[in-house]
Amino acid sequence: MMPHRSEKQKMLASDLYLASDPELQHDMAQCAQWLARYNNRNGNLSERLGEVGENTCIRPPFHCDYGYNIFLGNNVFLNFNCIVLDVVSVRIGDGTQIGPGVQILTADHPRDPELRQKMLEFGRPITIGKNVWIGGGAIILPGITIGDNAIIGAGSVVTHDVASGVTVAGNPARPLHAGL
């Protein structure tokens, strides 16, 4: 017989879970308190985030679900109004620069309407490599991997993985041809 798993354990394993679970609601409330302090410049990143590299900067206001699933390398920069829905891990490599209003979304919902009606959701991790540049207003969807040295154009919606060194733009984001 499988041991009982908490909703938080299910969430962290990318399985279906109930976001309304009291433990998760408590975690989100704690994160909201930290965000209020941080966004008013009375808190620091290492209080809540999973890992924060040297010389890393997030300009407030910043928004996330839990914080503890966010892992930032050295010299990472997130500009104003970034949103990270971190129900599972978000890993951002050294030297990555992220423009204002970018959304990094690990949270997802079942395609089956009966499961959605039960308010179940799940997450798929996002990995962003080293020295990536993500333009303002871009949206990174659940489960995406962006390779080192890639560029994501402003306003792009990234629906598929982006290979190292590739520049993509648009909705959905597509590789740009050389010389553009």
UniProtKB/TrEMBL annotation:
Which residue ranges does the record assign to the Maltose/galactoside acetyltransferase domain? 8-54
Q: Supply the SMART domains for this chain.
A: Mac
Q: Which GO terms describe its cellular component?
A: cytosol
Which CDD domains does the UniProt record give?
A: LbH_MAT_GAT (cd03357)
In terms of domain of life, where is this protein from? Bacteria
What terms describe the molecular function in GO for this protein? Answer: acetyltransferase activity; O-acyltransferase activity
Coiled-coil stretches noted in the UniProt entry, renumbered to this chain: none
Q: Entry's PROSITE patterns?
A: HEXAPEP_TRANSFERASES
> InterPro entries in the record, alphabetically?
Hexapep (IPR001451), Hexapep_transf_CS (IPR018357), Hexapeptide_acetyltransf (IPR051159), Mac_dom (IPR024688), Trimer_LpxA-like_sf (IPR011004)
Query: Would the keyword Cytoplasm be found if you checked this record's keyword annotation?
Result: no
- So what family is this one in? Belongs to the transferase hexapeptide repeat family.
**What this chain does, per the record?**
Acetyltransferase implicated in the O-acetylation of Nod factors.
- This protein is called what? Nodulation protein L
